[in-house]
Amino acid sequence: MHRSVVKIMALDPTVILNYWPLLVDGAVLTLRLAAIAFVGGMLIGAICATLSLLNYWPVRMVILVYLALMRGIPFIVIVFLIHFGLPSFGIRTQALVTGTVALTLYAGAYYAEIIRAAVLALPRGQWESARVIGMPPIAAARHVIIPQIISPSVPPIVNCTMTMIKESSILSAITVAELTYQGLVIQGNTFAPFEVFISLALIYWAITIAFSLLAWAYERRFGTASGRTSRMSPIAARYLDIDGKSGR
Amino acid sequence: MKTGPALRATRLIRRFGELKAIDELYLEIPYGQVVSLVGPSGCGKSTLLRCLTHLDPPDEGFIEVGGESLGRALLPNGIVKHNSRRHTDRVRRKIGLVFQSLNLWPHLSVMDNICTAQCIALGRSRDAARAHALELLDRLRIGAIADAYPGQISGGQQQRVAIARAMAMNPEILLFDEPTSALDPELVGEVLRLLKELASSGMTMLVVTHELAFARDVADRLLFMDRGIILADGAPQDVITQTADRRVRDFFDKVTAFHPKFMAGTKPKEEHS
């Protein structure tokens, strides 16, 4: 019994020592995929949210169908559909391209809902007061709406992005050479699955933790809602004192 | 002194399904006049303000602000012209609306609340906008809170900021949507005094209110509205004491029943003169 425990725990460091460059390559590709999907997804999300808020029903229906598909189908099925579906329409691309597109569309659907919900959560009067004073719609969005939706959407966006980073491992199924794929390659060469997957777990964990720390730093810097951080500042404290006195 | 009406609404109609919230309404407000608009809840007061500012464009009818048409225009040859969104935005700046819920922008300081629209919509320089804002804040006696955020100041101060924000655009007319309804009794007095000051400074105002004391003491003219129609229009004393319309009589009789003191202050016109 004692022996078998020792045997299970005995990890072979040479597996990682010999193959770490593959893991680095894989991690770099995973980061790049995540970065592209994050930026592209935010763009898609912002555009879809704006279009669906315009309340023009044909556009809204198209977006609704897109959101329903992306959020209602398992990611691995989406990936296969795009990867094997496109060639039947005569479009042949590399797995890396289809994988990136799938991940971006997937993340974009979730970001769209987050952004739309954040805008709808704002009192309607915020938009109306900007418009009624004569601000054009774009200026109203830029100066009144957008600054107010950033902070509340940070936590759900972090959540989604962490999920998206983890889901990118599924792209290994269509031979995109990201982290999980490289892990599977090493495992195939060494027959040492435990060493490989412990390494993968640690690297994924490090990536997602680093990302959530970034978001945490952002939230600390800019506050969850306006006023809350300024209220803690010494200048603001001074103004809190005058409350009631300057009413005169 | 500007001539012509500050605001003119001609045959305004706003439908919600079958219901006509505004029913063929005509309204003309000359410069310098303070008009109060009273009426039971749901009579279309707020809808009227939203129509006049094109937050909720009327289905029919025409609105003119300072001689310029807002939204739809009736050309001399009888053709109805639909103005562009850009034109509407520009004419909108001539109307200041102070919302019931104020709708200050919580992420901007008091100064930025007042300056942002000036810079964007009027193209004023940052310094000019600031100078103008400071002047207004001083006039409203809240110069000390220019750098505070809306969440840090009292309700009365917030109300002043909202008024300053609307006035910063140099509107032809200020519209108030129930400026006192969400305030405690002490603040009601403060806000009413402020409105009185604005009125005496020659500002043209249309005030939707349930404060009949304001309608009686400050306003030059009282409108009574019900079911989208203006039932009574005249000098406040006359409307309160002498209107023949039964619906209007009922309303003011009820007020009298609840506030005997209020009517004590309302002398019939004969005694007044």
Provide structural commentary.
The complex is a heterodimer of chains A (248) and B (273). Chain A has helices at 2-9, 13-53, 57-72, 75-88, 95-121, 124-132, 137-167, 179-190, 193-222, 228-232, 234-241. Chain A is flat and about 70 Å long. Chain A has 248 residues and is mainly α. Helix content of chain B is 39%, strand content 25%. In chain B, the strands form three sheets. A six-stranded mixed β-sheet of chain B has the order 8-9-10-3-11-12, with helices on both faces. Chain B has a four-stranded antiparallel β-sheet with strand order 2-1-4-5. Chain B has a two-stranded antiparallel ribbon with strand order 6-7. The chains are: A mainly alpha (248), B alpha/beta (273). The interface between A and B is large, with 32 and 44 residues.
* Structural class computed from helices and strand pairing of chain B: alpha/beta
Cα Rg of chain B: 19 Å
Mean pLDDT across residues of chain B? 88
| Gyration radius of chain A, rounded | 24 Å
Structural class of chain A: mainly alpha
Largest sheet of chain A: none
The percentage helix of chain A is over 70%
> What coarse outline of chain A follows from CA principal-axis ratios?
flat
Kindly estimate the percentage of residues of chain B that lie in beta strands according to DSSP.
25-35%
User: What is the overall silhouette of chain B?
Assistant: globular
Report the total helices of chain B. Answer: 11
Biggest beta-sheet profile of chain B:
6 strands, mixed
Order of helices and strands of chain B: EEEHEEEEHEHHHEHEHEEHHHH
